[in-house]
What we know:
- The chain has a five-stranded mixed β-sheet.
- It is α+β, with helices and mostly antiparallel strands.
- The radius of gyration is 15 Å and the shape is globular.
- The longest helix is centred in the N-terminal third of the chain and has 18 residues.
- It comes from Acrocarpospora phusangensis.
- It holds the Pfam family DUF4440.
Amino acid sequence: MGSRMTGQDAVAAGIDDMYDAFLAGDRHRFDSHLHPDVTTWETHLPGPLRTRAELDAYRASRDAAGARPSLASLSTQDMRVDVWDDTAVARYVLVAVPPDGEPEHTRVTDVLRHSAAGWLIVHHHAEAVRPDRA
């Protein structure tokens, strides 16, 4: 009898896969974890992006300017996932290590909904952590 992945495990695996896709430059796989109406609030963004179309427009502008982040590694730490029926919340620290740079820590909260497509992020909130508060 095979083991069945819990909702918490599936959410955590999906988030880790999303960041692996980012490192691999696989935007299609990265975006497969995002709901079309995802809101994206991050410290470095020009403001809240309220749909994936707005996120796509931001990324197109950033990439055209040659400003896509280059990272040696990208990983989650201290992840906690709670699941209630078809809703989940994941909280974790994202550690981004630029080539030849110091690790950067970001506190992240993702809200996800489960559908036929699996667990999709509907709200992503990320805040840079100051080095003295890491």
